[in-house]
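quick one, two chains, predict together pls
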Amino acid sequence: MPETKERSSVFRKALRAWVFLFAVAGLFAFTALFNPAVVSEALASFGSLLTRIIPALALVFCLSFLANLFLEQRWLSRHLGEASGLRGWALAVVCGILSVGPLQAWYPLLGELKEKGMSGALIATFLYARALKLPLLPLMVHYFGVEFTALLSLCIIVFSVLSGLLMKNIAGFDGSGAGGNLAR
Amino acid sequence: MEQKSKATQAVIQTAVTFAKTVPIVFGVLALASLVTAAIPPKGISEALPMESSLGPVFGAMLGSLAAGHPVTSYVLAGELSAVGASLATITALIVSWVTVGIIHLPAEAAILGARFAIWRNVICFVLAIMMAYVVASLMSLAV
């Protein structure tokens, strides 16, 4: 009986997500009636975004699969949970810096990890550390110089931890599963 | 055999998560593309007094509303700098562009929780302004 309830909840959530996507498609169609040029530009931009997000989503699917296969809730809570300590913060910062692709591609995996016990503060830290984009550093140096780039990069690392600490101490997101919507 | 069934279970679990989240992510990206095409960030930056003393706040606002590749924020920040925007303003723009996402908020809220998404974006907005002043002050000391 609880399994049936669980399935129907999953189905409802998936349905809502698809309804949202179709509503956006409807909005495109409606806008096209009045301003086809804007829609054409938006479609070109969306197409370019898709080419960036699809490889990242494929990578995230694989990581998510591996997390579901190998990561035990207890292990995750110990290494990325409330009590993970300095190692947890460092792991969140390093993974954030090394993660590739658009931010949105990482939401499904982060949702999964949150359900498994990753602390909200560390998720916030991971998301903030993504602001430091290693492949774009040469371009930033070209635009703004070495000093600014080095200082900004250092500040991003410090502020990523600060954002996690603020999420923990002001917003109270220290524990796992705080408000996540992926519960099955 | 047990390992195989565990793998199948992991595939199903991952597929279910993606079925629930990917349409939201795609929908939000499409919405962001439409909003950006209708109201280009450059147009907003021209409408806001970026050279004023409140420049960092406006820079953070622009970065929070904008969506797109971070490189676009570098180009825009370079243009703003050329017309007199301060270092703090362009720092706030670049940082908030990648840490705050008003247009992406529905996707973040649907997957990570509304309370989490709102708190995170508010905190990151404030931190973008703080970092702008910190970077500008340290840069002025270095010169």
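Chain A touches chain B through 75 residues (CB under 8 Å).
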